[in-house]
Write a structure and sequence with these properties.
Length: 289
């Protein structure tokens, strides 16, 4: 079944899919109704015209578009890239995006480092990041969402990961993008209970959820790759998150080893099924509220 063109400013709800350029053709051909929204990395689309720009505009006629940034470097040592942020703001306006999110990490210094590096879990970092988030939100005129990031080493730690992200969300007065796979990966790598982590997050801040697959490097080491199917323990954690926050809009991420669209749609349908089990209907929470 194909979807009908959407109304401008349509609310973010239900089950979504991360848009990669290789999916544009299949999505335009099929326009599957099982997708409620799409997510794009703004850096990959700023200034893009021609055939690809036209295809993205066509996608936006059928599906709400949310932005998930890769390089704002919200925790980094350099001044915020206001030119990039201005372009993101324009993209949000062009496509009536209901939400913009970023990773709680740092990724730049003299240039872009092409990696999402962990921040020290300290009060000093909380103050530093919250101030930067506040400036970004003032510039955009709305709250952003911060994603809990996966990490494999810690430069300094005076508080737990849960205490750290909770403190930033409160001090910056911003939203939470909960990546359930990252919770699972970090819980294995750093030895904590993922259910307790989700239970401790502030419910009033949660607006949006990611789910993805990962790579098993060793029994005690998981690597967040977005290159595999979602495994049962992560699906189980998604159910835990719905019990805690309600059936928030939830996106399937797949960045490489991308299977045919029909196979991706099976996982998107599984998200929707999980939402129905917890609410009696697909998720209807507006992420920008």
């Amino acid at each position: 079944m194909r979807v009908e063109p959407r109304a401008p400013g349509a609310a973010l709800q239900g089950a979504g899919l991360g848009l990669r350029r290789g999916l544009l053709g299949p999505l335009l051909a099929d326009r599957p109704s099982g997708i409620d929204f799409l997510e794009v990395a703004p850096e990959n689309w700023i200034g893009v015209g021609g055939r690809l720009g036209k295809q993205l505009r066509e996608m936006a006629q059928s599906y709400p578009i949310v932005l998930h940034g890769l390089s704002l470097d919200i925790g980094g040592p350099r001044e915020i890239d206001w030119r990039l942020l201005g372009n993101i703001r324009q993209l949000m306006r062009d496509f009536s995006c209901p939400l913009y999110s970023e990773h709680l990490s740092w990724c730049g210094d003299a240039g872009h480092l092409y990696d999402l590096l962990p921040l020290p879990f300290t009060e000093e970092t909380v103050t530093y990041v919250a101030e930067r988030v506040s400036r970004v939100q003032d510039f955009l005129g709305e709250r952003i969402a911060l994603e809990n990031a996966s990490y494999y080493a810690m430069p300094a730690q005076d508080m737990t990961e849960l205490e750290f992200i909770t403190a930033i969300l409160k001090k910056a007065d911003c939203h939470l993008l909960l990546d359930v796979n990252n919770v699972y990966v970090n819980s294995v790598n750093h030895g904590y209970d993922p259910r307790e982590y989700i239970a401790g997050l502030p419910a009033s801040r949660a607006r949006y959820i990611h789910i993805a697959g990962h790579y098993v490097e060793a029994e005690d080491l998981r690597v967040d790759t977005h290159g595999a199917d979602v495994i049962d323990p992560v699906w189980n954690l998604l159910a835990v998150a719905y019990q805690r926050f309600g059936a928030l809009p939830t996106l399937l991420e797949r960045d490489f080893n991308i299977p045919p669209l029909a196979q991706l749609m099976e996982e998107v349908a599984k998200i929707r099924h999980c939402q129905v089990l917890h609410t009696g209907s697909s998720g209807r929470h507006v992420a920008g509220a």
